[in-house]
Structure formats: C-alpha cells, structure tokens
Amino acid sequence: xxxxxxxxxxxxxxxxxxxxxxxxxxxxxxxxxxxxxxxxxxxxxxxxxxxxxxxxxxxxxxxxxxxxxxxxxxxxxxxxxxxxxxxxxxxxxxxxxxxxxxxxxxxxxxxxxxxxxxxxxxxxxxxxxxxxxxxxxxxxxxxxxxxxxxxxxxxxxxxxxxxxxxxxxxxxxxxxxxxxxxxxxxxxxxxxxxxxxxxxxxxxxxxxxxxxxxxxxxxxxxxxxxxxxxxxxxxxxxxxxxxxxxxxxxxxxxxxxxxxxxxxxxxxxxxxxxxxxxxxxxxxxxxxxxxxxxxxxx
Length: 298
Fold this sequence. Notes:
There is one protein chain. With about 300 residues, the chain is of the alpha/beta class. It has two domains: about 55-185, TIM Barrel, CATH 3.20.20.190; about 185-298, Alpha-Beta Barrel (TIM Barrel). The chain has twelve helices and nine strands. It has helices at about 1-30, 40, 70-75, 120, 140-150, 165-175, 190-200, 210-220, 240-245, 260-265, 270-275, 285-295, and strands at about 50-55, 85-90, 95-100, 155-160, 180-185, 205, 225-230, 250-255, 280-285. The radius of gyration is 24 Å and the shape is globular. It starts with a helix and ends with a helix.
C-alpha cells in the first residue's frame, strides 16, 4: 500500500511540473513579438513624402522588354527608382512563375494553358514584348525574382493569380527571407483578412475605392499600419485621399489605362495634379513618363 501511495505522489509531482512547463512555454509563445516587414514603417504615410512609381506588370509597352520579365525589372530599375507589381502563377508541376494570363499566346512563343506545362517544358518558350517581338528571355521563377529583389533592395507588390494559394506565395517569400521587399495585393475584405491572419508581418495592398470599403477596413481586425490603400483606377474626391492618409495609410492610384492616356494627351501634367490631390503611389503603364513628370530620379 505504501508503494502504491508513493507512485501516486510521484505522478502528482510530475504532472504539476509538466503543467508549469506547459504554462511557461505557452506564456513565452504569447509574449513573442512578430518581426514585422520593414515596409510597414517605410511605407507609412508621411506628409510631403516623395511620390512612388509602381510599375504595372513589371513593365509594359517597352520595346524588346516583356512584362513580368526579370530582365525588364532590371532594365527599368537601372533608370528610375520604383516598386514593381508582378503576377505570380503556377505551372503544372507547382512551380511559381511570373505570368499574367492563364494562357501563353499573348506574352510567349508558346500556346495553351500555363497549367498544362511543367516548368521545364515552359522554359522551351521565349517571352514576347507587347508589340509581338520575340526575345531570348524566359518566364522567370518567382524565387529568382525574390532573390533579385533582395539583392537590389527593390520592392515587389505581389499579385497572386487565382490558380495559386496565398499561403504558397507567402511561404515562398518566407523561404527566401524576402518579407522586407514584398507586399501582398488583395482585392476584397475576405482576401485581406485571410492574408493578414496567415502573415501578420506583411504589408498588404487593400482595396479602398470609396468610403464604404475604407469603413470595412477600419472596422476589421487588420491594423492600419499593415494597409497600403489601392483607391482604384478612377479619381475620387480630394477629401477621400486625405481621409485615408489621416489613418497613416498611403494611397495608390491605378493610372494604368484611361488615366495614363489622359496624362499622355495633356503632356503628362496630370500626374503632378493627381499628386497634389493626395496620391502617394502611381500604378502606371508609363513609368518613365510618370517619373519624369513627378521629378522621381535615381
């Protein structure tokens, strides 16, 4: 009987020790702070900050330089300071690559769906520029672009195509330790919340095209410091941009398309006018012209 009580006593102390150990581990985990991306501080709104050029699809309508191409990123980066919007898609063998379309015809010498090809098969095709000129450049791997961005201290705004999970892209960014040069593009509250839940350390481009969408964001569990506000491809009232900025959030205007055309027709003067309205970042298909008009130089 004494032996039995001794066993119970030992078991009791072991159990108490484990409980203390588990509590300690739990407390340590709870008090650990997330290492936030440097972009959260870098891209916080500040008055009179220099405008930023965001190069749509990594560079469009540049002769002999295709969109979503590593060599194009380098070419533009040699000339102007900018951040680069890129599109991440997935091959048949689950390799993450840069490509906007679901099919290959428009931007490569290949045909058919991207998902019908392994990366090795995809590598047999060449990229074409927006004018149909074939180049010797290849569809790049996302990991290679991440490595380039880190080496050159260049920021990527990552647009994730529907065939790719947000988790897969974030995992790739983490694997390359590229959190300080990447922000994730989201299009609605559900996407934004899902991305924030999985990667609270990253800066997110969030949709804030009007008062209603801004309200949804402000009422969400996403801290405003994690937000980079895409205000759409149409102009909003001046006070709307000021309201977004009052929360410490930079504004992005998509000038790509109609607004770029308007600017070109008016000698590029509108870019400066839009900056004065409250635009911090210009997502454009005309990066060189916009940079010149805004006085953005290397």
